[in-house]
Amino acid sequence: MKRFAIALAVVMGGAIFAPLASLGQGDNTLYVKQFPGQDVGAKLTNAMKACNPNPAVSCVLVLDPSLGSWAPGVMPNLCAQCSLVDNRAGASSAVATGITSYAGLLSALGFIPARGGTLVVSGPVAITSNYTLPSSVKVRVEAGGSFNVAAGQYLQIAGPLEAGPYQIFTGPGAVYFGGGVSASTEKVIPQWFGATGSAKSSGFASTAGNPVVAMPASGRAIFAVGDPVTLVGAGVSGATYTTTVTAVSGMNVTVAVAPSTTVANSPMYSADDTPALQAWANSVRSSEPQNPSIGYDLRASNGPSKLYVPKGTYIVGCSVPLRIYSSIILEFEAANTNEAARFYQCSPYVSAVRLSPFNLDLNGNVINISGNEIIKSFNIYGSYIIGNVYTPGVVFDPAPNLWGDTEIDHIYCGTMGGACLHAGFATTVTASAGASSITVGDGSVFVTGQSIIIAGAGTSGAALTTVIGGCGTAPCGNTFSISPSIVTTVSGATVTPAQDWVSLKINNPEMDVTQTHFIEFVNNATASAWINNAEFYQTFSSAVYINTPNPPILHMTQVECYGCGIRTASNNADNYAVFVNNSGAVGGDVKITGLHSYRLGSPLQAFGAGGVMVSTVAAASVTDSEFWDYDSGSAYKVVRIVLTPTVSVQGNIFTTTTASGGIAVSVCCTPGADATSLNVSNNTFKAGSYSGIAIGPDMNLSTQNSIILGNQFVGTFTTKYSANLGDVAGVRINGANVIPGTAGAPVGTSTGGVLLVNGSAAAGSYPDGAAGTWTPLPVTKSGTPTAGHGVCWKTSTQLGDCTAGTWPNCTTCN
């Protein structure tokens, strides 16, 4: 066996349970009590003089229980080949030091009894083959101690491990925590794998030959003279190179070796922590057998160690994202200051973190293909922002089953170019008709048996749904087989998972100054999100963005939104604080309670009190919310709900300060043939030259379940109520059957409302203030009835349904 210069200690209580000869061939074992000396230290000194002088022969020195009553004296330093086994009666531990080989490690472990002991490592120990330190062994690694794991091998630590924030794992091999029945390492920190916790990153622009590089205004002036710095793309022929900072002046940094290539908006960093963090993230994995029916079990046999991030800054995603596997607990150290434990997204072109829905066993096999994670105090910042670059910070990769019950508590996102959290995986493929094997841009998320959708690859260019095969039990990679095969040749076609369901519970999130959303669901994702007690500041766009063909579930409570949405944006989605668009069949629900949306003051007036847009869900409610200073910039609605059968807008406050047009509450367009149940009640509108409540066009309202009641209007409104209905008998307002006005005043005055039928005002409608009812509409029609979308005039005072002919050319009205 190859010999290594190391120092290692074994600590245990009780007697020696293995023969001393097991320490290895050539050992000479000496009992210290047999040597002269007035105390233990003196006896030990004399015993070492009797060791074989050959440094290749181990010398084992034993302190047996009879020395427990002796004075300790001054303990000497052990000789290079000496090992000490301390088993004195009354001592809390037995210690063996000076092991100089992997064989010595195994021999030392032989002394630990079944009831357990402690292994103290103070020098480098080589792990040359797969090995598991049993759960009965507590490992303590001192500064200077380490495990060097050979390539292709692993060290599994089943029991507890203690070490300071310094590197203790080296070599290309793997380290895994967990597997113990009753004991394990509670917190696994990235410093053990070489992460610095003090790295720096920003963006830069350079000119070839000029040693001065400029950081962008959105970057961070944090570099100091003497810092190593890596400049991405600024080396010879666009290579990445590393140099040293020689001077700093504001946002300009002078480097020792001038760039060879002119670049703009590229990352610069003192260290990339991603490789060390990846080894750290890989070390905590589940080995629970796959059971899709229950998803992940956080009590898996390789747990329950957690990934813990101590206070510091960690640079992530300079060239590749950090991938964190599922069935784990990820926790960041929190503090009362802005700087606690924090990830910095190194490059705005690369996501910092990808969260995997599956896990891998110790042999790299995929297990548990539905996600579940607990994430606490997650803190992520962008190093700098580039306009129109929207790479998300944290990505949820798709699950073949579902992402179930992932909980995120106290997440913070700041100064990011893209969304903080992103779901909705997509990649691309180019393939010929008849191909049964394809190569995609990114296949790392796919597994055997997973269904995918390839746009345009089906019959006559339709979408093709096919099933992945040929990957065995490992993640697929970019090339894999499919069945059925490609029907139509495609180039750069979008590939999405057939199912991409992400279920999240997010408590106490905060986001400051970003280019886009806090959370976004796109492509083929199915959103299921609960967001509670949130604070979002200057998101530049909607804080929550859902735009997929699948029914969403979104529940939000107590959300503060400062400057969410761009008031002057031409893109409808960017005007809203919350944007939900289901482009598929009606389904899902949106429930928003306690949303407070505020406009920012000068000089950020463009960032407004964005409202809520919901489309094509089964039920939507906005209650007990406030929208302050929402006027300005555009005529978009504050609460806009379309194609939704059940709508509730209650107990809200809508306030503007200047006249700008637009509508506070807009409900439009009954989905399909179903009637909409509408409740717009007990809201307060404070406005100038703004419309209050608009219903329609083409609404078919439920007669029994629709009501507009108890709304208060303060100020001057263009119109308080307006409606463009397909069935005017279907809505009740303050107990009446149509749109209200002041008692005795005709509908259409500034104090009343406007009733539209097929876009035209219905004349002569008067309310009876005392009875709260309406008189018949004294409107006569002659000729072909064309009163509404599928609605016609049955008599001069009664609407009916078009039962013959094609609207608007009805021939029979009943």
Describe the structure.
The chain is mainly β and 814 residues long. It has three helices and 67 strands. The strands form ten sheets. It has a 35-stranded mixed β-sheet that branches. A six-stranded antiparallel β-sheet has the order 15-20-17-18-19-16, with no helix packed on it. Strands 35-40-37-38-39-36 form a six-stranded antiparallel β-sheet, with no helix packed on it. The longest helix is centred in the N-terminal third of the chain and has 10 residues, at 40-49. The radius of gyration is 35 Å and the shape is elongated.
Using brief descriptors, characterize the structure shown.
814 residues; mainly beta; 35-stranded mixed β-sheet; six-stranded antiparallel β-sheet; 67 strands; 3% helix; 40% strand
Net shape:
elongated
Class of secondary structure makeup:
mainly beta
Number of H- or I-type helical stretches: 3
Strand content: 35-45%
Note poorly predicted spans. Answer: 1-26, 287-300, 727-789
Main β sheet profile: 35 strands, mixed
Give the oligomeric state of the chains in this entry, treating copies of one chain as homo and distinct chains as hetero.
Answer: single chain
The end-to-end span amounts to 98 Å
Residue-averaged pLDDT:
79
How much helical structure, as a percent, in the residues? under 10%
Strand tally is: 67
Radius of gyration: 35 Å
